[in-house]
């Protein structure tokens, strides 16, 4: 793909500082939309891509916009071959509240996002559907005046809504995410921001997801697909470095702050193990908060979240365990409605759901109780001064 030399002089007329809140006055939404409409829209048209139409509302304290397809979705089919999504038919445009700036990838701020996307774009061509399993497909990467525009299919948010009707539908969802993480780690990519908000489904609804009639049908027919996306915090392990011994300090997110890994004032972390724990946390959230749990997910999530990081499952081991257990299920098991449970995020509570035989079978996957020193250090690091002192001592001991 050749770059267009005429684009070299293009200047992005707004700050790319992500600390600026998208809905704030400083974000200057009208100015940004004018740039995308007057500069980017005609440029994309040359490549065969048509941007959504948009409108916006602003006053002295608040800016927000909504978007709708430029084509008449009533006259087009409700489905397209992959990588595109299914969507509901309706007479009105599908208006979507835009809460975030368009994503961008830039080496100048120290991220690896463009290398990650280029790697996935190259690797997905090895698969029959031109998509890495469990990863959002990439349609195109377009160089744009020293920046990159990443073209992806529009998929839908909140993939767990409405709730699944069978255990089998939940397990398909979980396996897709495990596949995605195995693929990333196989390419030496650390995601670092695995969370329910960064998981998509190949369907976007016209109305609220809870009211969707198509999603249950897609799940029932085996056509629903799920994918990880959002690689702005991702990184690739540099060539020549042993992936197994690679240590790094990640950018902290709300989910990382829930893991044992980051509550003891440490400096060095295994980012691949953190990814596994983040996915384990996501699975517990959708199986606990979402009231869905199946028995072998108890040892699986426990071993993905264990505080003994060196004994945590790798992504590949987690997928292999899942597949082994899945092979034992019958058609009746898969068609069973999900049980309603409410244990929150504490995996320990889920072990009480298992029979004595099941507990004995998977005893080797059960996390031991945290030692007293660890619990004390955890409490100490909850305090800002305690965390600072712990960091200081650890730095002196390095």
From TrEMBL:
Name used for this protein in its record: Protein kinase domain-containing protein
Domain called Protein kinase: residue spans: 73-398
GO molecular function per UniProt: ATP binding; protein kinase activity
């Amino acid at each position: 793909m050749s770059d267009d030399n005429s684009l070299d002089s293009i200047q992005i007329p707004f700050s790319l500082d992500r600390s600026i809140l998208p809905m704030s006055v400083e974000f200057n939404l009208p100015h940004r939309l004018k740039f995308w409409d007057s500069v980017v829209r005609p440029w994309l048209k040359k490549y065969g891509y048509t941007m959504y139409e948009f409108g916006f509302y602003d006053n002295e304290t608040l800016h927000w916009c909504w978007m709708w397809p430029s084509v008449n979705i009533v006259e087009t089919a409700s489905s397209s071959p992959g990588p595109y999504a299914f969507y509901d038919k309706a007479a009105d445009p599908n208006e979507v509240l835009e809460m975030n700036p368009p994503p961008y990838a830039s080496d100048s701020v120290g991220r690896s996002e463009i290398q990650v996307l280029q790697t996935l774009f190259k690797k997905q061509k090895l698969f029959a559907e031109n998509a890495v399993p469990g990863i959002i497909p990439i349609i195109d990467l377009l160089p744009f005046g020293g920046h990159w525009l990443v073209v992806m299919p529009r998929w839908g948010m909140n993939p767990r809504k409405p709730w699944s009707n069978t255990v089998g539908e939940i397990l398909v969802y979980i396996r897709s995410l495990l596949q995605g993480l195995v693929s990333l780690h196989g390419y030496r990519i650390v995601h670092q921001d695995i969370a329910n908000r960064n998981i998509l489904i190949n369907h976007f609804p016209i109305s609220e997801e809870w009211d969707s009639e198509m999603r249950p049908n897609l799940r029932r027919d085996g056509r629903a697909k799920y994918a990880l996306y959002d690689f702005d915090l991702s990184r690739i392990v540099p060539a020549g470095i042993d992936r197994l011994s690679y240590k790094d300090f990640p950018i902290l997110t709300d989910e990382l702050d829930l893991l044992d890994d980051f509550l003891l004032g440490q400096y060095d972390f295994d980012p691949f193990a953190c990814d596994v724990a983040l996915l384990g946390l996501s699975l517990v959230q959708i199986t606990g908060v979402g009231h869905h749990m199946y028995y072998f997910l108890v040892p699986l999530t426990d071993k993905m979240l264990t505080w003994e990081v060196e004994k945590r499952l790798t992504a590949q081991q987690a997928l292999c365990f899942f597949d082994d257990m899945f092979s034992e299920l019958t058609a009746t098991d898969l068609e069973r409605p999900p049980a309603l449970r409410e244990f929150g995020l504490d995996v320990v509570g889920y072990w009480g759901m298992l029979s004595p035989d099941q507990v004995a079978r998977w005893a080797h996957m059960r996390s031991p109780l945290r030692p007293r020193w660890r619990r004390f250090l955890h409490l100490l690091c909850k305090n800002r001064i305690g965390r600072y002192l712990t960091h200081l001592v650890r730095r002196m001991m390095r």
